[in-house]
From TrEMBL:
Residues 174-309 form the MoaB/Mog domain. Pathway: Cofactor biosynthesis; molybdopterin biosynthesis. This is Molybdopterin molybdenumtransferase. InterPro entries: MoaB/Mog-like_dom_sf, MoaB/Mog_dom, MoeA-like.
Amino acid sequence: MRLIDTKDAVGHMLCHDITQIIKGEKKGPVFRKGHIIQPEDVDVLLSVGKDHIYIWEVNENMLHENDAALMLYDMCKNEHLTRDPDIKEGKVELIAECDGLLKIDKERIDKLNSLGEMMIASIHDNFPVKKGQHLAGMRVIPLIIEKEKMAKAREVVGDKPLFKLLPYRQKKVGIVTTGSEVYYGRIKDNFTPVVIDKVKAFGAEVIAHEISSDDVEMEINCIKKVIDAGANIVLCTGGMSVDPDDKTPYAIGQNASRVITYGTPVLPGAMFMLAYGGENENITFMGLPGCVMYEKRTIFDIVLPRIMAGEKLEKSDIDRLGVGGYCMHCPVCIFPNCSFGVS
């Protein structure tokens, strides 16, 4: 790579994209890497502030920014992940090939970013993503970088990809609506429709629905019924507070083999319950507090994508939700594009 006066650059090859910024109109390459500079290009280059231009000269010890960015991509790519085929201004972007849950090895990315002269920026860990969504961008800072430094990056990262996208699984959901006020028709059941909409957003099928009074034996039996119907996720709505009539946690405990937590460091959703049961703990039980019905976003919205992607959460996973576990109740909810659930 050699720096020359732009007026003397005609006939030479650009070794990087040249960016043009017009306020309110555009920001992007006006010339791309590899472009052979023509006489009419000189005035354009001067208009974007390029009095001098880097032209490409082969150096066996150095890598061009595009090639280095592709090496970073190679450290990130994994099943269900691809990249934008167009490398713009030395940057490669990671893209989801399907809906799913994004998992990120934050510790190794931190180590790579600490090396200097290279970077990876991403959305946050455990993010529910859509097919085609851009997830991360990566590039090196200088126009060219030593091959030795990129080899060091590979050594730090290792062979395991930095990103993983878990597609949502086809889960079968059973819902048990609890509360004598609903069972006896004193009030309308406004809870179940909310839950159905949330699980269907992740491709789940609701295969059974039972309504129980506050009688604990009825609750236990209703849970058994949805399990017998084939549910591998059991959602119990209501009856999750410390009121003497609220027996849902006990009813869940009687059907589950292992309770992970009753209570979370998340608001809204402190009275949430998570448990497992069935053969090889293949059934997930969740006790949903009343806030799930009337709040826009709660602990349920944080945990549900991870369950739908096949993760088995432990107590430590729940405990880590405290920082980032407070919903700010914004006038316009933009979840998950916010801090709620970011641990």
